[in-house]
User: What shape does this take?
Amino acid sequence: MRMVYVRCLLRLAGGVALAGVLLSGAYGQEGIRVAADASLKGVMPELVAAFEGEGGETVRASFASSAYLSAEIAAGAPYTVFLAAGASGVERLVEAEVADNTGEVFAGARLVMYVRRGAPIRAGAGTAGLADALRGQRLGHVAMADPAVSEYGRRSRDILQAAGLWAEIRGHMRMADHVAHAARMVSGGPAQAALLPAPMAGGAEMGRHGRATQLPAGTHEPVALHAALLVDGDDHPAAAFRDFLRTERAQAVLERHGFLLPPL
Assistant: This one.
C-alpha cells in the first residue's frame, strides 16, 4: 500500500473547497485523520468522544461526498481512515493501490422524503406527494445529492425512477455536491423538498424546518457505509478507530442516530 503526502486543494463540483476539519487539527499533526462521507457529520462528534474517552488517539475528521474524498485521497491527502458511503470510492483506491481492500461495513442508511414546512407538497405522502404537486403545478425545486458523485444520489434516482417520476421531475431537481448540501438547500431554501439519508433528516435541527417520511424498503437498497484503513498495519492507531466502529458501544450510537446496523 502506498501513502503519498502532498499538499493539495481539490474543489467540489460547485466550486466550493472541502469544508474543513470538524474536530480541530490539520494535516501533518499527530492523530487519526478521517475522511468521512457527509452523511456522518451529525454522528461523528459522539463517536469520536466515545473513542477518545476509552483512551484512543485524537481523531480529526473532514466531510464531503465520498467521490470527492476518494479523489483527494488518491491525490495524496494523508488520511488514515476512509468512511465511505457505498463501495465505489474505496474500490477506486484499491485499484490505485492506496487501500488494500474495501474495508468493513459498519452501518447503513436508507433515504427519506423530507418536505420543508409550508411547502405546497403533501408531507407524509412520500413520492406520491411530489407527483401530486408536480401535476398540480405546485412543485418548485427538489434537492438531492448528485448521482455523479454520491451513492445517495444514485439511490435517490432509483427511487424516482421506480415511482415513474424521474423523466417528469428532472427539471425541478437541484443537484447538491453531497447530502449535507442537499439538507441545507431544503432547510433554508430554495428547495421545497429533498431526498436525504434518514439519520440526517431525523435530527432536531431538520425537525424544526420540516417533516421526514420513510420510504418503503422495496424502493431502494440501503447505502452501506464502509470503513477502510489507508495505512499499513493493524497496530496503527487508525486501525483501532476502524475496529471501534463495530463495537457494541459505537453501534448503539449509530443506531440511536438512525443508522442501520450490519448485516444490511
Observations:
- Residues 151-162 form the longest helix (12 residues).
